[in-house]
Amino acid sequence: MFHPILPVILVSTSIIVGQVGLAAQGPALAVIPQPIQAELSGGVFVIDENTVIVADTASMPEACKLQDYLAPAMGFRLKLVENAGSQRAITLRIADAFAGLADEGYALSVAPDGILIGAKARPGLFHGIQTLRQLLPPAVFRLARVEGVRWEVPCVRIEDQPRFKWRGLLVDTARHFVPKSSLLKFIDTMALHKFNSLQLHLTDDQGWRIEIKKYPKLTEIGAWRDETLVGHARTKPWQFDGRRHGGFYTQNDIREIVRYAADRHINVVPEIEMPGHARAAISAYPRLGCNPDTPLKPWAVWGVCPDIFCPTDEMIAFMQDVLTEVMELFPSPFIHIGGDEAVKDQWKASPVVQARIKELGLKDEAEMQSWFVKQMDAFLTRHGRRLVGWDEILEGGLAPGAVVMSWRGEKGGITAAKSGHDVVMAPTSYTYLDYYQGPKEREPLAIGGDVPIEKVYGYDPIPAELSADEARHVLGTQGQLWSEYIPNPRHLEYMAYPRAAALAEVAWSAKERRDFDSFMNRLRQHVQRLQVMDVNFRPLDK
Ligand code: ACM
Fold first, then answer.
1. CATH number, domain 166-340+403-508
2. Which residue's alpha carbon is at the smallest distance from atom 3 of ligand 1?
3. Distance in Å, CA 277 to ligand 1 centroid
4. Which of 29, 169, 424, 490 has the fewest Cβ atoms surrounding its Cβ within 10 A?
5. Known catalytic residue: 188?
6. Active-site residue 341, yes or no?
7. Which of 183, 190, 210, 246 is nearest to 327 (CA)?
């Protein structure tokens, strides 16, 4: 894993930072996620007004970001130059010399007279910059000038690269709408933790959140519900707040979000739910459902809703039209079509669906769903994209190109990987960040479950049942922030952090280097950064 690329200057004071834990005074390098290899040496590099950033054309976009990151707190903007001359410099370099690093990997060397960040491509430079930010005092994250801080970076030599290529978080914008500005802040915080994938859950029973030009009622009607359940759905009788809730992203909003994330080397994966979780869409276009003469409204309660798309040719063409606009907006190689919790009662009762099952020679409703997903898979494949679905898409036979997101435990992921399909591991018991993170009586209302930070940290995305060959199908892991009980962006941050920092380390760091005590030591410093960034993280247990 270790690629000796930078000249190794081992001075006598150098400390090999194995588990990076110098417990009493806190860790010397509080970097999250933990780099693969970090070697501290004595001394510091000091950034001041005379420091320059050296970048060539290829690395210039990342150099501008470094400038932007440092300027607000430092109160001065580092000059960008092509050659340092005699000036003390932070040099960014994309070069063949770094080709030994994995994609997204970087090498960072800090010496008293200069800093060098090298990578084979821009994402690596960007991740190196995130590490550099974490080597500076936490005040560097402030968005206004900070007086009286010496901007010191400890001398260190780091080589780093991710363990997994899918390091994701899911934000559910359907149950509670997340304003664009809050999403952009969320993306910034993801970038700090070297996440590279944001799944936007855009449609569900309770709301449709993306403008589709061809079908304007999806947002005119589907983006608004009359009211919302108060308290937990298990608590009867149900009570409602009597307040209209909703909102949606225009296509321009989506373009802005996607561009903002791409600038930070984060891919946005859209999730358009089908055939279940479809009530908001059916409310807007009743002909998509199994009971077109029964008017519906976007759902005001939480849980699994029986309303489901009716798999007619017209409905399939409709959703393919939707996906066509979605593909124009999202360059993501992966398009998520949901596929989970599709209750089949309406299919069982529908003469139209029963006739379809017979006509297609299918055995039952599970095969009907599988046939439907295969239509979408073929459509997306024809357009050069890959279908992703929750593990229910295994039932009735998996579509040839599909990627499986394993949420009901690891079983779906194991089955899919063994049959040669790529998988993203997202099991409830480790990665559902909408579950409780502490004792229920002391936490705000959540959907249920019990996923404290040590549970997240202890997760290994490679199931023990997989051979090395099969394990190559595990693209990575993702944390879920379903928002039934996450009513606003502050609460989204509370549920995400610090557990997402633990998941970031699971997704990025080498398994052998993971150590919960070391992580918690670093986290105690790391939360100071989150505080300065005004991220509403859950305070650490003492
Ligand atoms: C899911 O949590 N229904 C994927």
1. 3.20.20.80
2. 340
3. 10
4. 490
5. no
6. yes
7. 210
Residue 22 has pLDDT above 70, yes or no: no
127 given a catalytic annotation: no
Q: Would you kindly state where each structural domain of the chain is located, as residue ranges?
A: 15-160, 166-340+403-508
Q: What is the Cα 277 distance to its own chain's centre?
A: 21
* Cα–Cα distance, 41 to 110 (Å, whole number): 9
- List the beta bridge partners of residue 208: 203
| Closest atom of ligand 1 to CA, residue 405 | 4
Q: What percent of the chain has pLDDT over 70?
A: 95
* Ligand 1 site, residue 390, Cβ cutoff 6 A: yes
Q: Which CATH superfamily is domain 15-160 in?
A: Chitobiase/beta-hexosaminidase domain 2-like (3.30.379.10)
Which ranges of 342-438 would DSSP assign to H, the alpha helix?
345-349, 351-359, 365-382, 411-418, 428-431
Averaged pLDDT for residues 187-204: 98
Residue by residue, what is the 3-state secondary structure of 110-123? EECCEEEEEECCHH
Would you tell me how many other CB atoms lie within 10 Å of the CB of residue 452? 16
Q: Which residues pair with 8 in a beta bridge?
A: none
pLDDT tens string 445-482: 999 999 999 999 999 999 999 999 999 999 999 999 99
**Which atom, in ligand 1's list, is nearest to the CA of 390?**
4
Distance CA 530, CA 396 (A): 45
pLDDT at 26: 57
Whether residue 341 has its Cβ less than 6 Å from ligand 1: yes
Would you say residue 10 has pLDDT above 70?
A: no
Q: So what's the pLDDT on residue 82?
A: 92
Q: Is the pLDDT of residue 17 over 80?
A: no
**Ligand 1 within 6 A of 407 CB?**
yes
Contacts of 325 (CB under 8 A, 6+ apart): 212, 213, 214, 251
Would you give the end-to-end CA distance of the chain in angstroms? 35
Residue 11 has pLDDT above 50, yes or no: no
Looking at the predicted structure, is the pLDDT value of residue 14 above 50? no
If one residue of 388, 482, 483 were mutated to test the ligand 1 pocket, choosing by the most ligand atoms within 8 A of its CB, it would be 482
Confidence at residue 19, expressed as pLDDT on a 0 to 100 scale: 37
Structural contact between residues 323 and 380, judged by C-beta atoms closer than 8 angstroms: yes
